[in-house]
């Protein structure tokens, strides 16, 4: 990593940090850099990554992180759309209140960049290692000033969420700690599409406003691929089908790209299928079979599947089985003619 401009971060007005790819918890090769400039109260972040094989027009989420008892508390700073094999973007945010978290740039230990396909890239400027398994996305303005016991932090976070009186189903109550960042940004869309669901998480930014407006009408004339499956009984998600990752390519280019998502591959490998449904607005929803626990919730959110819905079809001893799910872009679905 390279910095230019002073002897401690608090004095820096401009510095450059090298970014590395991480695979299987191991630091890989350098793939680019991030340049950070602070002028007055404005922090300008300029990211340049070269990522061979990266699909274009997918989402890359940008996080700053604060170290907390060995964990990396990720603060969503923004996001951008990837190019073919590269990520280039510029963000401008408050240097004293990074991502509306109450934390300043001086308190950050580095940055993490996560792509829609599951790529994990990071840089640190506090001379401590980055362990991807210790990275977690935390709610804005709920990063502790001190470092209390993790269980106490989790309980207090849940209490604050409950006091906010935000409507959400009981089965997803625990999700809300990591899923409150984008409430203001997509409040209208969320109420329309997920009136029975939890608040938007960081990864829910992967569904663009244009895509939501384009698909706000059902497509009753278009059959879904796969095998019919009565996964849920409450009517919130219907017309469900068990599908394979290959079936995603019948639903358009962006949906097809999800075949490379590591969480999608994980669910398909362990349970032998994925789940495709429609919500009440007729929009496509992709479900990944799995269990509801802390570790899997972290993985699901990290790879873009912020919601969980229990299903009697997924039986896991000692844990609640069901599907982690999200909306998917099916712009080209009408072109699919039903042929395998």
Automatic annotation (TrEMBL):
Residues 190-201 have a biased composition (Polar residues). Residues 142-224 are annotated as: Disordered. InterPro entries: DUF6128 (IPR046131). It comes from the Bacteria. Residues 220-308 form the DUF6128 domain. Residues 152-188, 210-219 have a biased composition (Basic and acidic residues). Pfam families: DUF6128 (PF19623). Transmembrane segments: none annotated. This is Conserved domain protein.
